[in-house]
Amino acid sequence: MRKILFTCAAPVLALAFLSTKAVAQCPDVRSNRPGAPLLPAVTKVEIFNPTVPGKPHPAVPGSEQDRAQTTGGVRGKSSLTLIVTLSSEVASGCELPFSLYDATGSLINRFQPDTEKTFPRINGTSSSYLTVTANGSNKVELTLPVGIRLGGSRIQRHRLGLSTPYSGQTPETPVLFEFKNNPVRIGSIYRIGDTSRPASPGDRIEVAVTTAEPMDPASEDYEFVTSDQRRLRNRLFVRYTFSPTNLARLDGNMGDNPQPFAPNFADGSSRLPIRISAPSPTPSPVTPILPQKPLAVVKLPTRPTLSPKPQAQGNADAPQSVVMSAQLYTESTGEGGEILSLDIPLN
User: Fold this and answer.
1) Domains of the chain by range and CATH?
2) What percent of the chain has pLDDT over 70?
3) What's the pTM value of the predicted model, to 2 decimals?
4) Residue 155's beta-bridge partner residues?
């Protein structure tokens, strides 16, 4: 009889245990409800190391070898994954709202200038990647997209914390973390097709530009919000120039410079058509004839001389080539990095 009662009671105890787990409360970040669990604090930040997953980078490295690195906009390198330790466990399924701050400055100000220039807001005005779902432990991970940088590398310093707009919910001081963001670099510029044949006026040729590393397609959606609420695209563009300026132009309805970098080809290149123009005729210099007084010419015996044959004007002075240059550009940073040039021979 006792055995039967025990057998019946076991499922009841299991259900009670599951019910206790199910009713675990989440920190209330949308209201000031009395008795709701408070947000935990961030006690430690580490940075995922894709090379050695079991040994993450420290938040603040002790040496350059320990420093996490990204290349914003480049495939496989354009994001930073933070491994965050909290002061207490959080029930599975609870939403945790993180906030990013500059390394220095007030936490009260909504706008953090340096942070806004580093981490693009992919989904309009919301930073959805900062809301993380807890897994029942005191550790969570969040992945931050990093914006494109041009020119040189820079060590970025920021702070991470949990936040809520309601009083009584602000946790302890956010934790500092840093990493190095390396620039996107231009790789090459070259002509498509028969490069041995000089171009003639009216020809339409195709030119390709590559980056040193393949770009992440998601970076096309990157944008930053400035303190005056302007939205600046962080998408990669290329600015083209020609010398002489009258010998070539971007063909078709492509608009003005710069042009979007669109690596739609197997070699990772972005291509665009160029139209070769005829050089503008250079007018012959006109020497004004001024009235002069007649001079008395004294004839002296001289040797006969041969006058050189006059050369045909134009061919000697005509440009033999047009130089096309390319430099990377983003709306948020302007031009930056190396300028590559391509010499296109002309007929």
Assistant:
1) 42-181 (2.60.40), 186-279+318-345 (2.60.40.10)
2) 76
3) 0.77
4) 180
